[in-house]
């Protein structure tokens, strides 16, 4: 490794032993070799540290912190310690395709105005088996990102100089910190994707709770509020810090509440969480009885986890992915 690698991969870890071996192997096997891997561990007590230390590779640097301080904070700590011109994300339970860095570095080298480039992904289960593909919009804009997040965060490669300029991750966002950063970047610079599955995103169903998805969704709405009007956001942020995240929901319009409940219901069905999905579908119907989708989600919640997961995968394969392919070809 050169003294100043072009790429710094930043990866937070905490009790990550279950999948870390596969993850690290995918990184050290990259065809692009001019990188360092900066791992920031927040006090793991499982085999995370021994697994890291078992890799005899001087490109790996380990930073150990006392106790868990949050993922956004860990990411910023890693970026601060990194020396690369480009900053790559990676999550400890995922894997990268061997050509990932080669293709992404080439993209940023060629497109010098682009702040970040992500990639498509294969979705894998707890055992590492591929069960679906996530296509991504190649030319997302600030406006399309306001509609939804078009990035697989772990696949992103950022231009370090621009990260320093915009301020890296906002540590107030304990969830959806990636979405907030992408919105902030897209407001000033082009952000892009390579619609190839250069990353394996592990979908774990053993720790999915309705409260977690509700929080993720609310933080996502907060990111939009901040991106659209920072002055108004500062006032809202103070209210949230005083009265809790539910303050954000309380100031939603009826249409926003309907969209929020519909989105959470749909995500819960993807994980087979039928009871909570039904509750949110019912709330979406109460907010807006003219929407068709909440009724369909409610009916789907009356089936079984296997059926709901199968339908969710079919929906992405047959409807979502073809729309993305069409948009990318125009």
Task: Summarize the structure in words.
- The chain is α/β, with parallel strands linked by helices.
- The protein folds into two domains: 7-202, Spore Coat Polysaccharide Biosynthesis Protein SpsA, Chain A; 210-328, no CATH class.
- The protein is built from 14 helices and nine strands.
- Strand 1, helix 1 (17-28) and strand 2 form a beta-alpha-beta unit.
- It is globular and about 60 Å long.
- The termini are far apart.
Key features?
330 residues; alpha/beta; Spore Coat Polysaccharide Biosynthesis Protein SpsA, Chain A; 2 domains; 14 helices; 50% helix
Task: Please describe the topology of this protein.
Blueprint: E1 7-13, H1 17-28, E2 35-41, H2 48-53, E3 60-64, H3 71-81, E4 86-89, E5 95-96, H4 100-110, E6 116-124, E7 130-134, H5 142-147, E8 157-159, H6 160-166, H7 177-186, E9 191-202, H8 210-228, H9 230-243, H10 246-250, H11 254-270, H12 274-287, H13 293-300, H14 305-328
Parallel strand pairs: 1-2, 1-4, 2-3, 6-9
Antiparallel strand pairs: 4-8, 5-9, 6-7, 6-8
